[in-house]
Amino acid sequence: MIIGTCGFCSTGSSAVSDYLKEFDENQVLDRLEFTMVYLPDGLEDLDYHLNKNINRDDNCCIAIPRFRRFMRTYEHMLAVHSGIPESAIKEKTEDFLNSLIQMKWKSTRRSDRLLYPTWFYYNFGLRIMAKRITPILRKWLGQNIKPYPNRMLDVCIHPNDFIEKCQNFVRWYLESFGGDYSKNIVLDQAFIGNDPAKSFKYYGDSKAIVVDRDPRDNYIFTKEFLSKKGGFMPSGSVQEFVTYYKLLRDNMPYKKDNERILRLHFEEMIYDYDNATSKVRKFCDLPDNPRPFSVFDPKLSVNNTQLVLKFPQYKDDVAYIERELSEYLFDFSRFPKPDNSGEMFMGKSPLNK
Fold it and tell me: According to CATH, what is the number of the domain 1-25+183-353?
């Protein structure tokens, strides 16, 4: 089974990945975020253009080259982490696409401008060719001369066994990355936090654990820690942070009950450890933990919570967040005041080695 831990950017999904690493039944592949399914131009977009949004053959002729270009990033990362030559990985991508492509023919498309730089289609020389010289050549030669170069078009409309081929392709990637399908394979960000269910079909047997974080801490952590690393979400003002936080969550599908989705607060894993980890074990059908606190230790992660105690200068911003995002707050009042004077950290636990 594939278990994807996911969130909304620095919301603590690594806490669950760290906890799951304490079980022999699991294999946690957390060296990179496995986002090839749902990112723009990934498998979901390919599915959409080949099977749903069919516009003659324009969509497939654009979507397939875009997928090739998108996969170059993954081919490089997989080669670095697996030791497999990048050329062999590229060949596997082509094998996957060729299993889908139904025919090829040489032509050009007005929509090709979506693949190539604007200057190529709008530079002065080509415009003169298209508007002045090409009509003369057509008349003189008696042929339909085109000003732009032809390319080999890959045509694919409603390909057979698309989902099965996607699952095999994903499985090959995971196994090349060291994935052992005799265990639960735990992936980082294999699904998108606000709608994980839409990606399940590309993996087969799969579940998602969506981890969210108290917006007060998410905001202060971003201001004091993430912004120094380039920033992952807007935090120039508390108002823009609140707007962004709502946009990612309000009325999103992840809120609907789904037996294959477990929703957790990052803070539950720290302040209500026994109950939270019991939920995780039940959801993943795991036995009692043989090595508690060996990778995930709440005493370390508590340093990433109740940050207004560390940074009281944000108390007015916190009050605004409490008014605007009340439904997303964690009730810290049920628990003793923590000692969170230690170091904050991002991502995996310092014990995750």
Answer: 3.40.50
